[in-house]
Amino acid sequence: MQLSKRMALLASKVTEGNRLADVGTDHGYIPIALVQEKKIPSAIAMDVNQGPLKRAKEHIQDYGLDTYIETRLSDGLAKLDAGEADTVLIAGMGGPLTVRILREGTHCLDSVQELILQPQSDLYMVREYLCSHGFCIVEEDIVLDEGKYYPMMKVVHATADPMSESELSYGKLHLQQSPDIWKSYLHEEKRKTEQILYTLEQAGKESSERAEELRKKLRMLKEIS
CB neighbours (10 Å) of residue 154? Predict the structure, then answer.
């Protein structure tokens, strides 16, 4: 199974020997690759929609792995029981949805060793939720895949150190596993923010609420980088 750069990096974060629950599995590629490589003994591929789950099941059967990978229709973690998984992977969803899944999954998350999270948006919201609900980010990473940056994190149960507003938005430098890519990501965020702010200022909207938000973002980017 050939994974994209994003999915390969996510798969690499799963601790060897752990049972995986892949929430929003889509095609089931990550569980298939990990079981194929014998990195994990089993997985539960979960999705809220029948269509993606059907595709995942077909792919799993094509690789002859249906003995090791179960497909399960589930809204988030609703159908995962305590003790069924050691690692929970939630990738490719917006920050608010990621937080909802975590909040509604407390019935099973206490027995999980680690979370691998790759929110598509609102990382501030995700980090803030984790830090205030007994989780600690132990590793941050980022990959550039087909022109887009994908930040991700590994999370365990522990008391988190305080994080500044800029760290909640962009992560901590000492946790970064790919610091050069992370710095390129921050540089690109700064460039895009300055461009939007310049456009607003040229339009006479330099005092608007949006312009103030952009200036705040620039201050955080300069602080973190």
Answer: 21
Domain boundaries, the chain: 5-173, 184-224
- For residues 39 and 18, what is the distance between their CA atoms, to the nearest angstrom? 8
> Cα dist. 106→23, 134, 157 in Å?
14, 11, 12
pLDDT tens digits, residue range 45-85? 999 999 999 999 999 999 999 999 999 999 999 999 999 99
Q: Residue 17's Cα: distance from chain center in Å?
A: 21
Helices 29-36 and 5-12 cross at an angle (nearest 10°) of 60
CA end-to-end distance (rounded Å), the chain: 37
Over the stretch 82-91, which tens digit does the pLDDT of each residue have? 999 999 999 9
Average pLDDT for runs of 10 along the chain of length 225: 95 98 96 98 97 95 97 97 98 97 97 98 97 97 98 97 94 96 97 95 91 95 88
Within 10 angstroms of residue 158's Cβ, the number of other Cβ atoms is 11
Task: Tell me yes or no: is domain 5-173 CATH 3.40.50.150.
Answer: yes
What's the whole-model pTM score?
0.95
User: Hey, what are 210's tokens?
Assistant: 């949006």
DSSP 43-99: EEEEESSHHHHHHHHHHHHHTT-TTTEEEEE-STTTTPPTTS-SEEEEESS-HHHHH
Give every CB contact of residue 102 below 8 A, 6+ residues apart in sequence: 90, 109, 115, 129, 130, 133
The identity of residue 29, as a single letter, is Y
User: Residue 39 is encoded by which pair of tokens?
Assistant: 């990195």
